[in-house]
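Please, is this right?
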Amino acid sequence: MIGAMRSRAAGVALVGILLFVTGLLGWRGIATEATDAVRVDASVPRCGGTEVGTASWAGSRLPAIPLEAGMECRLAYRLHNTGDTDLTLTGFHQAISGPEGGAAFRVDAINGGDPEQTGDVEARWTGEVALPAGDSTSLRIRVVFRPAGCTARGSVLWAGSFATVRAWGRDRDIALPTATLYRGTADSHCPAATG
């Protein structure tokens, strides 16, 4: 009798575990499917203090911002929620353009606010912006010249950018399209190392 009760309890526990795992996987799948519905458009950068040119990157011609003293550029992304689930834009991060980045540019503002001062090489912003089903929202980035930075004259850089979107309590990074390159100039050139 006791053996049968233990066997039944073990069976109930196993069913409970299987239901929990199935629910967890289903929740993750639904959240992933919802964030897969985000489409992103990027606009051409608008700059002051420099004239945007173009450069080749992965078989395409893209806008290239010359890294010159006094330059200030505005980059804009439009995130479209083409799905039927309300989402929330909860963050942004961009490589090498944060407080401790070494490149000759840095992100100065994200959606009108200061990026987080994390001591990181990435520029980061966290917040909550509604992205209802069938609607869109903007992500606006201001990039400025970093006088203490170093980007070799003539080199072309790309800074990977990601938006973080939340669905069903789960955050997911979405790679933003490569829409802007950065070109080293005499103003951004690295001094030769001295030994």
Summary: The longest strand covers residues 72-81. The radius of gyration is 23 Å. The CA atoms of residues 64 and 181 lie 4 Å apart. DSSP finds one helix and 13 strands in the chain.
